[in-house]
Amino acid sequence: MNKFPDDFFWGASTSAHQVEGGNIHNDWWLAEQSGALKEPSGQACRHYELFREDFAIAKELGHNCHRFSIEWSRIEPQEGKFQDSEIQHYHKVITELRNLGMEPVVTLHHFTNPLWFSQKGGWTKFKLQRYFLRFVEKMVREFSGEVKFWITINEPLVYSSHAYLLGCWPPQERSLLKTVKVTLNMAQAHIKAYSLIHKIYQDKALARPMVSIAANLQAFELCRPTLKNKLAVYLRHKLYNLYFIEILLRKKTLDYIGVNYYSRNLVDVESWGIVHLLADTCKHNHHPLRKNSLGWDIYPQGLYKLLVSLKKYNLPVFITENGICTEDDDLKWDYIREHLGQVYKAREEGVNVLGYIYWSLIDNFEWAEGFAPRFGLVNVDYQNQRRTIRPSAKKLSEVSKTGLI
After folding, report:
1. What is the pLDDT, as a whole number, of residue 36?
2. Sign of torsion, CA 7 347 152 217?
3. 316 prior amide bond cis, ω within 30
4. Do the beta carbons of residue 83 and residue 23 sit within 8 Å?
5. Dihedral sign, CA of 237, 178, 184, 16?
6. Would you say 401 and 62 are in contact if contact means Cβ atoms under 8 Å apart?
7. What is the mean pLDDT of each run of 10 residues along the chain (405 residues)?
8. H or E stretch at 354
9. Taking phi first (over 0 means left), then psi (-120 to 50 degrees means alpha), and beta for anything else, what does residue 252 get?
10. Contact 255, 211 (CB under 8 A)
């Protein structure tokens, strides 16, 4: 048996729009009502009302941390009009976590935007960053005494590509120029937010916070060892995995690296064109692997390789998301156990991994995929909102409580 350290963080994650229900003031809600997406989020999991029940389950499962997001559109449903009742709600959320002995890991932007912000041009406009920074300042001044770990932006490259390149998320546009603008504006917003957060803590004479993003990392693997494929793997790792992180590292604005990891990308390039080099994947089911219900390859060793590749930055790493959607609970446990084995292996090689946060605590609204994918440690019956702990969650709880894997 291998043992994780006693101070290792164990937890699960949620995001506001995916679980709370009734987030009527953001861009996703509008797109859902217009019929532009598969199905509306509606009441989702009613976590807004049921968070105490959900946190009690997390405590029962031995979690000592929990990652969640604050919904900007609840706090500021109209430009400049902040809702104190909603701020108090998140105070209750954080207080409940603290009372249960769980470290809050707070995300400030998890894919959704207030409708008014989106209608002004959102992240495509450099000058609109000031609205996000105003929100960040208000939240950090409110919660700085209760929160140590902050994530400014969740998966910025996923947001920019899905919303402005692939066109599958609001505002469902397809523009390479806007994709680049959004990516760079988000980087600048994080850099400014990082300085702002640290200044607030300094002014309040509080212990130094830990501030990062949650970066979506993929394992880019060769289908065949051709020169084209080798170049493509190199380019994709640099562009999709490291580019955003390295912008922030150059500005010294990461206290740790938040890692979201799910799957591999099997690279097989048809021609030398740049689009092919950056996008082509194997179409012939070479090197087949087990898959989740969305068809993503299960590739635990990819997490190990990525963690080792981050070692050169000399920063702690926090697994802020790792999980599987499947109806096969044995497969869910295999996925968790095998990925934890790779995390342990990376730690043995000197990677300072602070903790492991599974995605997600409960089944939820999985964005454009709707409610069908089941990522949760806890099953949610969407007819009556009943929660049922899965056997895989109980197995993970033994690891959380003992550190043994």
Report:
1. 87
2. negative
3. no
4. no
5. negative
6. yes
7. 96 98 98 93 98 98 98 98 98 98 98 98 98 98 98 98 96 96 98 98 98 98 96 96 98 98 96 90 93 97 98 98 98 98 98 98 98 98 98 98 96
8. strand 353-359
9. left
10. yes
Reported as half-sphere exposure (CB side, CA atoms, 13 A), residue 227 has a value of: 2
Dist. CA 341–CA 328, nearest whole Å: 20
- Nearest partner of 15 among 78, 55, 67, judged by Cα: 67
DSSP string, 326-352: -S-HHHHHHHHHHHHHHHHHHHHTT--
Which pLDDT score, from 0 to 100, does residue 183 have?
98
- Give every CB contact of residue 225 below 8 A, 6+ residues apart in sequence: none
> Position 127: which residue type?
K
Q: What is the DSSP letter of 64?
A: S
Strands 386-389 and 378-381, bridge-based pairing: antiparallel
User: Both tokens of residue 356?
Assistant: 């492991």
Return d(Cα 303, Cα 250) in angstroms, integer. 24
Q: What is the pLDDT of residue 1?
A: 87
294, 258, 313: which is closest to 109 by C-alpha?
Answer: 258
Whole-number pLDDT of residue 317: 98
Q: What whole-number distance in Å separates Cα of residue 264 and Cα of residue 181?
A: 27
3-state class percentages of the chain: helix first, strand second, coil last, to nearest 5: 45, 20, 35
Tokens of 80: 């400049």
Residue type, 117: F
Using the Cα atoms of residue 9, residue 12, residue 16 and residue 20 in order, give the sign of their dihedral.
negative
Domains of the chain, with CATH numbers? 9-217+237-259+302-402 (3.20.20.80)
